[in-house]
Amino acid sequence: MSDKYVGKEIPQVDSWLKVTGTLKYAFDIFFPGTLYAKLVTSKFPHAKIKNIDVSEALKVKGVIKVATGKDFPYRLGLYISDRDVLAVDKVRWVGHPVAAVVADSLEAAEEGAEKVKVDYEPLEPVLTIERALEKDAPLVHEKLGEYRVFPGFHPVLRTNIANFFELKHGDVEKAFQEDDVVIIEETYRLPQISHITMETQNVLAWWRFDDYVELWTSTQSPFATRFLMADALGLPVNRIIVHAPPAGGGFGLKAGLGWEPLVALLSKFVGRKPVKLVLSRAEQMTSAPVRDGFIAKVKAGFKKDGRFVAYQAEFYLDAGAYADYTINVARTAGYSADGAYEIPNVHVKSYAVYTNKIPTTAMRGFGHPENHWALELTLDRAASVLGIDPVEIRRKNLLKPGESIRATGERGKRGRR
Question: How far apart are CA 145 and CA 115, in angstroms?
């Protein structure tokens, strides 16, 4: 092996710029004449919007315009078009943006946002996965059947299930009934988690007079942003120009389409002037996506010598108000449910579930950490019950070269056991 790089200290290419404070993030970019946007957000988790009065906000010195959902009748969504640019007809979580104020200063935008009056009719909120799955639960999305859905995803109409995935191999029920099988049953839970990036989400957008849309945004996925923007707004892809300065943290939060459509439309709304939206830390915690909450209900069967004979799991991912990446995270968790182990009988069901909570998106691991956490805890529990060393029970069940992964049939290659 070459020693040209191995064992050598190689400076990160942008280290000097970072430590001297001269690296330019999207947060730092402004142009002369840039206007400022501020969100008006819901105080209710679930409510009808009866009226939005912007008259007092428009009297604030420096306020130029106030936009509501009815000004931007576009549908957004990565795998399912379940998202409004701004809330239309009803709000779906505390922090749901219902209006956006554009002004010539941040102070004026903030003052204007405080003066927007919204008349709500509260509805019963759906705050847990369990309630969301009950037959009489209020629907977070009554028009689920009207949304455009990417092939391979399966929302369940007239329910709060944004996506259902199932993987089945062998016969788990028959395996559970075999002689000498010890059954382990557990339920594991994880809450929603915020990404807490050092740089909050922010976008500078300019809808130019030649109908090109130029964006300076803190994103992990400039090309995804470009294609999704073009698709949502009905523009040719080549008319979306995305500048992606170094991001001050992402972790999945900035992997999909964020606030770019809203800020671009605001730019057009105010006469094609550049508009900047920077989320405060409080807004980032209440209005921006988080990692899904997670419930795993598992039933596992082991022979007394520690051999894994059957694994049955139900995964429920709390997608919040909009599913975004989470319907794919749920599918990914289902695909990889049996981990690195040879389990002859597997049956997994995975659900992405709408609730009246903060929308969710990708976060590091993309469904694998939650799923494998549940699986590994189950192995620890089995080791304890069977009196086997936790390392040994894993060695006994690891995939061997040539054995297949259940979800894909891909054969394992030689590796360390």
Answer: 36
**Cut 0.70: pTM above it:** yes
Coil, strand or helix: which one is 189? strand
Q: What is the pLDDT of residues 342-400, one digit of tens each?
A: 999 999 999 999 999 999 999 999 989 999 999 999 999 999 999 999 999 999 999 98
Say what angle helices 390-397 and 368-386 make with each other, to 10 degrees: 110
Task: Return all residues near 58 (Cβ < 8 A) that are at least 6 apart.
Answer: 65, 66, 112
- Structure tokens of 316? 């429920």
Choose among 46, 50, 48, 49: nearest CA to 138: 46
Asked if residue 231 and residue 312 are part of one domain, the reply reads: no
One domain, residues 296 and 379? yes
Q: What is the mean pLDDT of residues 36-63?
A: 99
Q: In sequence order, what are the residues at sequence separation of 6 or more whose Cβ sits closer than 8 angstroms to the Cβ of residue 53?
A: 116, 117, 118, 119
- In the chain, the number of structural domains is 2
Domain limits at 324?
Answer: 144-193+290-397
- Supply the DSSP symbol for 359: -
Specify whether 217 is located in the same domain as 356. Answer: no
CB 301 within 8 A of CB 182: yes
Residue 35's φ and ψ, nearest 5 degrees, are: -95, 160
Q: Counting runs of H as helices and runs of E as strands, what totals does the chain give?
A: 11, 17
CA 285, 286, 292, 297 torsion-angle sign:
positive
Burial of 40 (0-12, 13-18, 19+ CB in 10 A): buried
Residue 265 clears pLDDT 60, i.e. is over it: yes
